[in-house]
Amino acid sequence: MPKQRSNLYTFTFALIVCVICSFFLALVSEGLRHRKEVNKEMDVKKNILKVVGLKEPLPEGADTATIKKIYETYIKEVVIDKEGRIVEGKMPQVIAEGEQLYPLYIYEEKALPVAYAFPIVGKGLWSTLYGYFALEPDAITVRGITFYQHGETPGLGAEIEQQWFTNNFKGKKIWDLKNAALEPVIVVKGNVEDKIQENERDHYVDGISGATMTSKGVTEMVDRELRKYEPFFAKIRGKN
Predict the structure, then answer these.
(1) Is 149 a member of any domain?
(2) Which domain holds residue 190?
(3) What pLDDT, in 10s, does the model give residues 123-174?
(4) Is 2 a domain residue?
(5) What is the value of pTM for the model shown?
(6) Is 78 helix (H, G, I), strand (E, B) or coil?
(7) 32-91 pLDDT, tens digit each
(8) How many domains does the chain contain in total?
(9) CA 97 to CA 74: how far, in whole Å?
(10) Which one of 3, 31, 174, 227 has the fewest CB atoms closer than 10 angstroms to its CB?
(11) Distance (Å, rounded) from C-alpha 103 to C-alpha 59?
């Protein structure tokens, strides 16, 4: 009759196996850390290049070297303070948590601004939404919006990342010329043509059917983030 193993033996054996597995998992994770950081950096760059609407779009399946080269050629990174002043010598990557400083990405062609982009973050129905928002050089007209991370419901709230939704923002206005006031784009419930008078439609986009809370979250995040950057954009409009 085989000899029975004690509980201590079983526990010790299981503990050793767990320690060995944990060691190798940590080793693999550490080995992939650099690659993960590079992929994350490239994802950010791709989204910024996408939202500013390059005159020559990023090639499909572009590798890391290509993305980096195009980004460094056309995107100027700056940091602004709450008064809308550019903070000299400061880069977006070194903004500390709690600082009232904001990253700004300027798309330039021949040293002239073509678009201004900045990150937007807000709450949807189930998750935090992350994206970028871009304005034309007039600091009034929307050039684009992208969403690159969220956990909204597929087929409903997740539609925010689809072109049919993001394209609705292009050409919309965030400034009311008549009243000289900031008026960020609002996502309506339903269709703009059915809900909003024609002379006011420049500030509204169609909502997503069945995703009222996500649409509301997009409206609130765009409004909140735009107000952070308004002191800077006010200076731009004052020069035009």
Answers:
(1) yes
(2) 37-239
(3) 988 889 999 999 999 999 999 999 988 887 787 778 888 899 999 999 999 9
(4) no
(5) 0.82
(6) strand
(7) 555 667 777 888 899 999 999 998 888 888 888 999 999 999 999 999 999 999 999 899
(8) 1
(9) 27
(10) 3
(11) 26
